[in-house]
Fold:
Amino acid sequence: MSPKRPDYPRDEQLEAILAKELGRQRDKLEMIASENFVSEHVLRITASVFTNKYAEGYPDQRYYGGCEFADELEILTQARARKLFGAEHANVQPHCGSSANMAALLAVMKPGDNFLGMNIAHGGHLTHGAPVSFSGRVFKAHYYGVREDTELIDYDHVIRLAEELKPKLIMCGASSYPRIIDFEKFREAADRAGAVLVTDMAHFSGMVAAGLYPSPVPISEIVTSTTHKTLRGPRGGLILSKRTFAKRVDDEVFPGIQGGPLLHVVAAKALALAEALEPDFIDYQRQLLKNCARLAARLIDAGFRLVSGGTDTHLVLIDLRNKNLNGRQAEEALDKAGITANKNTIPFDKERFTVTSGLRLGTAALTTRGLVESEMDEVADFVSTALHNFEDDSKLKKIRERVASFSKKFPLYPGLDF
Ligand SMILES: Cc1ncc(COP(=O)(O)O)c(C=O)c1O
Structure:
């Protein structure tokens, strides 16, 4: 006989918030380069009963009973991650990209050790050594960046720093670098320093999975990623590594920094990885790149200067200075026009982090909604008109109305209430 359950009333307050968020995602154009929309199946699996289960440890070495299916799940997810990326070892437990990076750094270094990461102001992530992050507080971070003339990574400087400082670890990968990274150059720098190469492929892991971006996996000892950006999985992280680093990485994820894995998210990662193994996923990544190239071309036609002159990826970084507005004003104007994006520092930016001179736009989420190149022309027009009229609220409101009817052509989660 089942125990009597309390008859919960509907939580209308909470449901209203969820419904508003769904409405926001449906009605606006999502151009934050680090966001995407998971499939309805991944969305459903993220809410599975595995949310109830504790499984500290790893398959066959758990600290809790009842983990037989958790083991099956984790083994399956690891196998899919290894297969998708051709990796020797996969840890699928990191709760997010930052904890994946924390585990990677701790697997290689002791507090106070030297490492080399990309300057956050040039496109690196907080966890690549920024002074406000654990990565810059626990370890001694040194930075490389881009050249002022080309706005491309200064590989000669990376190699010089590696030789001079002999860091224990070199980290590559970025949050707002629109170009392909030359992993071989980073390998050379790491070899000259006797350092471990860690690549954070959070932004481009979807393109790597599809074979449309060079893979850092064969030439890095450790590769970290988020699962929710171009990879189009649930919010989370993963770490791939050479077999020789497997135990150190695993020990740092658990018990080093995390407790029990979020198994419901691990289940959703398993499904997202299976989706990424399908041929459709390659088509999606191809389209995402075509869309970004088209967006870049149209923005350039409209007189915008793109950092590095363009893009090879899913994102563009606009230098707004010739348009006499800053990143904060641009973000606000786009928001009023129904387009979600983020202000971003550009290399050698003179503005504060809270203001910035740049705007980052990505095409991963719009491509998932089904937009193709011809529709990117319209999107570029919305963006350009909004930025050129950033102080004119009535014009921004008109764009917002156009954006709302345009968005309706690309239904998001039809049938879902919240
Ligand atoms: C390159 C890179 N690494 C790591 C992260 C951190 O991921 P999370 O927000 O899941 O901690 C981000 C986030 O945007 C990122 O851009």
In short: The longest strand covers residues 114-118. The CA atoms of residues 17 and 418 lie 9 Å apart. Residues 34, 96-98, 101, 125, 127, 173-175, 200, 202-203, 226, 237 surround pyridoxal-5'-phosphate (CB under 6 Å). The radius of gyration is 22 Å.
